[in-house]
């Protein structure tokens, strides 16, 4: 009798996991792929406000991830951005005034965002931070932070430069005042056994970025590696290197289709990916989970999406994903 019962239970469990569970999961996936919600929770509105400038492909990927999660979770998703911290803060305030149901913000320049995040908390709007500001997120009242530890990511770059036998590297900062960028360079300097120099450029002016890197490479031929802090700046650094007649290797933080192509053709040495699609997707999904079930990830610590060092051997597999805007 017990043997029969075990057999019946086994068949029942197998049916739940391999048939019913799979059918339910397939149905949810099909609904999400078709732009239809996979849940029947209320139509909440979540707003994301980032420090992105215009035309930054990194933030396009973050937004893609957020929009995919929003479609699945029956969320109305709105997005705003401004590279000027004060205007970013004003955008957040506008969404507070609109009484959105959840906020996702970046803290690239945390001092400018502190008060407005506190206002959101006071208004009863849950806040999740992404990408930058991991150190300040909890203190400012955010529920969780999703991104990479920028210092740890920098340390990974320093380790990779050591493996490649580099002796003198240039860290190119394209946004002055961005704490995450400073942390990346500081982390690189911490583990890199060679000499690391910093170069500040105006990231909104690509001709200026190119000429600044080119001049530095011409003035110091001993520089054997250039590290850019964002994917859009890597191809520009390659052009600067060519114009300067330098043999320096160009490496970068972050990934996009151009970077994947550069890794494949050898014009770039390596990239450090923090999976921006995942940052957007998980931020929206986590707010939905919080609203629906009072769930929260991280236990008071950041939820890490990187760093992941990517080289030529990874490029072919990743190109498909970069072309569709998810890596």
What does this structure look like?
With 327 residues, the chain is of the alpha/beta class. It is 52% helix and 16% strand. The protein contains 12 helices and 12 strands. The strands form 2 sheets. It has a 6-stranded parallel beta sheet, with helices on both faces. Strand 4 (127-130), helix 5 (134-137) and strand 5 form a beta-alpha-beta unit. Helix 2 (57-72) runs parallel beside helix 11, helix 6 runs parallel beside helix 7 (179-191) and helix 8 (206-219) crosses helix 9 (234-244). It starts with a helix and ends with a helix.
Helices and strands, with pairings:
Elements: H1 2-33, E1 45-50, H2 57-72, E2 76-81, H3 85-97, E3 102-105, H4 110-122, E4 127-130, H5 134-137, E5 144-147, H6 150-163, E6 168-173, H7 179-191, E7 195-200, H8 206-219, E8 225-228, H9 234-244, E9 249-253, H10 257-265, E10 271-273, H11 276-293, E11 303-304, E12 308-310, H12 312-323
Parallel strand pairs: 1-2, 1-3, 3-4, 4-5, 5-11, 6-7, 6-8, 8-9, 9-10
Antiparallel strand pairs: 10-12
Descriptive keywords:
52% helix; six-stranded mixed beta sheet; disordered N terminus; alpha/beta; 327 residues; six-stranded parallel beta sheet; 12 helices
